[in-house]
Amino acid sequence: MKKILIPTDFSKYADEAIEVGAQIAKENNSEIVLIHMLELPTHMNDAISNETSIPEIMLFKRKAEETLKSIKTRPYLSEIKVTEIVRLDGASKGINNYIKQNNDFDLIIMGSHGSTGIDEIFIGSNTEKVVRESEIPVLVIKNKIENFKAKNLIFASDFSNEIKKPFKKVLEFSKLFESKLNLVMICTPNSFKSTSAAHKIVNEFVSEFDMPEYSFEIYNESNIEKGIINYSNENNGDIISFCTHGRTALSHFFTGSISEDLVNHSSKPVLTFKI
After folding, report:
1. CA 233, CA 143: separation in Å to the nearest integer?
2. Full-model pTM
3. Domains of the chain, CATH where assigned
């Protein structure tokens, strides 16, 4: 892992993501890029035609740059190559635009408030938009983690053919984190599969890969989100991971707002891969 992108709004949630990013970077000799999206108040949006707003915009930008430089001096970022970037753009839109222009990142790490998903800049719909649109895996950090470990990586899926390509990335991350891979298929009243049918699907799926140590279970629950969270809690999962379809929708396994629900409601880190 050579390069990690960490968006920050200077909140404590973003700081928690930076601390995890530092731990991962030190383990893998990675570079960190800290990016702040300076979303200007509405009255400044017409700065090009309103010359009086330009000095105020530059003041905001300079303050953001100074804050990023102060973050760079924190002890836990010592011995890590850190680059700071400030851009004038909306939160999720700006992040996704930057990713498209700079696709050499291996991982994006974002901090999230969690349950309510409405009060901070990098939560709720903004996080969901980055998760849905990013071609790069996104790790969402929900709480402060003093010693980041991923010994148990939960991967929830329907194990359809479209999952095979992003699953290669899942295997790379399980190797990177030295994780045991816990595969799980959530069966709900609307997506029931017999035990024999589920095992047949997964056995055929994994037969195409050089698998590390892994386990597979079927977990029955009233809905997929609750099933993933409950399974992860019962099996001491360190990270919940799954694949998304991107802009159009989630796979037929992850319909509706499952991705957003997991990002907002899970207390564990969430790692997403785009199909």
Report:
1. 15
2. 0.88
3. 3-141 (3.40.50.620), 152-274 (3.40.50.620)
